[in-house]
Design a protein that fits this description.
The complex is a heterodimer of chains A (303) and B (254). Chain A has 303 residues and is mainly α. Chain A has a single domain, classed as MetI-like (MetI-like fold, Orthogonal Bundle). Chain A is built from 13 helices and 2 strands. Chain A starts with a helix and ends with a helix. Chain B is globular and about 50 Å long. The two termini of chain B are 35 Å apart. A 6-stranded mixed β-sheet of chain B has the order 8-9-10-3-11-12, with helices on both faces. The longest helix of chain B has 16 residues. In chain B, strand 4 and strand 5 form a beta hairpin. The chains are: A mainly alpha (303), B alpha/beta (254). The interface between A and B is medium-sized, with 24 and 32 residues.
Chain lengths: 303, 254
């Protein structure tokens, strides 16, 4: 080491070898991690109580797969409701009509301000205070009427609870996205004769989308796991199913591992989709690969 | 006989206590090229934006092509138009901005095609053919698939001009079209504008390019503090200004 770092003379040596900075800390960390990993593997292999064989057995078990599909269905439908309603709310919050703005603000205030668990249970027990849901003239004749508990099934309850809550958060995400689009873009669209709807659809929202996608992917991944809350209304999604099974056979850890594996698989897929979307949305935005080249060209010109 | 393309009468506009336009009367005839000169804050950009109803008037009125901007006259009253009606009225007026304001998520060609398709309902094939012609006219036939971020400022501004022309406007408004450009890129944009003027387009240009005003414009209007100080032929106003304010301004920019 000393031979490399001590200069032999004060003259310039363009071809002297370079000694890279050493990182002894990394080797220490690697050693510690290796020991921990060995301990973990030993624990997994040597403890028969863990029953890893059960994990493989339950991974594709019929009720687990059904629970998994329910989780997926809940996530997709809730997010669709959340994104659609959230976008409408965001546009409403930016409206010039103070009443519309107020309604959207009130919605976000209410649904973001109460726990999602409370909202789920609220929709679940709605039938106890509102036994009938009717269609008709307000305070006038009714055209049709249904019992609340028939109309609002377990699945509908879950979608209402998860989707309406999600819409409040999505509204804020979309609003931030729209707010980030330059005012000049709207003016340019208006100057071309676009009406407000076309301006939003063709100019503002596509540009806002680029900024909306990452937090929305975040929300979707969060929703995937949040669906396990429907446990309280007894809908058998992935976590509920797992709990039902270990309630019978007391193999909690193996079954929780099964659930975790599936959640991780879904999250991984969603992350991949997110990267794809982000790439597509960044059309026209200078990517990192083009920027250095421009800088180089400028500096070359300067000389 | 010449007909008026733009007629402004007693136009007033204030931001809070700040009177930006104090009473502007101006007529721009069909085929005329007029430049608005003046120090920053004189209200020339605001007036230009009023012509397109991007700013609402606080008094007076503007007509474009014989149609009242932003209002409908009925039984001696002026009724405010709906956003949709304002949008329809803007089709006849093209606008070019200082900061280009191209749609960054669309290529040069798509920028030009956008309004004909989604405002006029032109078919995609027709809009594309028209856009190709327009990009060729502004000298950017080779850049039709480039995104704005990859183009130089001068190229972006030329795409913006092509985009405005795609709506086949009767009047073009230019809001300091070369102020955000590197000096060496100013010429290419001015050349395109000169070509437009030669083709008989009615143009109102807010600019600091005295050379352009002298060479291309039929008339120059000098504004200061929300009022028109003087106007007339470029050869008169620019060479032999009558007002002290105009003299002081021109001595600084020339």
């Amino acid at each position: 080491m000393s031979s490399g770092t001590t200069p032999t003379a004060h003259t310039a040596h363009g071809d002297e070898p370079i000694v890279r900075l050493r990182h002894p800390g990394r080797w220490v960390a690697a050693a510690v991690l290796l020991v921990l990993a060995a301990m973990f593997v030993h624990f997994v292999v040597a403890s028969p109580e863990l029953r890893l064989d059960l994990v493989a057995g339950y991974l594709f078990e019929k009720s687990i797969i059904q629970g998994l599909l329910m989780t997926l269905k809940l996530t997709v439908v809730s997010m669709l409701v959340g994104v659609a309603l959230g976008t409408v709310l965001a546009v409403m919050r930016l409206s010039e009509n103070p009443l519309i703005r107020g309604v959207a603000g009130g919605y976000v205030w209410l649904f973001r301000g109460t726990p999602i668990l409370v909202q789920l249970l609220f929709w679940f027990f709605l039938g106890s205070v509102l036994p009938q849901i009717s269609l008709g003239v307000p305070f006038g004749p009714e055209f049709a009427s249904w019992p609340t508990n028939i109309l609002i099934t377990q699945f509908t309850t879950a979608i209402l609870g998860l989707g309406l809550n999600e819409a409040a958060y999505m509204a804020e995400i979309v609003r931030a996205g729209i707010g980030s689009v330059d005012r000049g873009q709207t003016e340019a669209a208006e100057a071309l004769g676009m009406n407000p709807v076309t301006t939003y659809r063709r100019v503002v929202l596509p540009q806002a989308a680029r900024l909306i996608v990452p937090p929305t992917a975040n929300q979707t991944i969060s929703m995937l796991k949040l669906t396990s809350l429907v446990l309280v209304i007894g809908l058998p999604e992935l976590t509920t199913t797992v709990q039902l099974i270990y309630g019978r056979n007391f193999q909690q850890i193996p079954l929780l591992i099964v659930a975790s594996v599936w959640y991780l698989v879904l999250t991984t897929i969603l992350t991949l989709v997110q990267h794809r979307l982000e790439k597509r949305m960044s059309r026209g935005v200078l990517t990192r690969s083009t920027q250095p080249r421009r800088k180089l060209a400028v500096s070359a010109e300067g000389r | 006989m010449t007909t008026a393309m733009v007629e402004a009468v007693g136009v007033r506009k204030a931001y809070g206590a700040n009177d930006v336009l104090k009473s502007i009367d101006m007529t721009v005839n069909n085929g005329e090229v007029v430049s608005l000169l003046g120090p920053s804050g004189s209200g020339k950009s605001t007036f230009l934006r009023c012509i397109n109803h991007l700013e609402h008037l606080d008094g007076g009125e503007i007509s474009v092509n014989g149609r009242l901007v932003g209002y409908r006259r009925h039984n001696g009253k002026k009724y405010e138009l709906r956003a949709r009606e304002v949008a329809a009225a803007r089709r006849d007026v093209g606008m070019v901005f200082q900061r280009f304001n191209l749609f960054p998520h669309r290529t040069a060609l798509e920028n030009v095609m956008e309004a004909p398709i989604f405002v006029k309902g032109t078919s995609k094939a027709v809009a594309r053919a028209q856009a190709v012609t327009l990009l060729d006219r502004v000298g950017l036939a080779n850049h039709s698939n480039a995104y704005p971020a990859t183009l130089s400022g001068g190229q972006q501004q030329r795409v913006a001009i092509a985009r405005a022309l795609a709506m086949e406007p009767a009047l073009m408004l230019f809001d300091e079209p070369t102020s955000a450009l590197d000096p060496e890129l100013v010429g290419e944009v001015l050349d395109v504008m000169k070509g437009l003027a030669e083709d008989g387009m009615t143009m109102i240009v807010v600019t600091h390019e005295i050379g352009f005003a002298r060479e291309v414009c039929d008339r120059v209007v000098f504004m200061d503090a929300g009022l028109i100080v003087e106007h007339g032929l470029p050869s008169d106003v620019l060479v032999n200004p009558q007002h002290e304010r105009t003299k002081a301004f021109l001595s600084k920019v020339l």
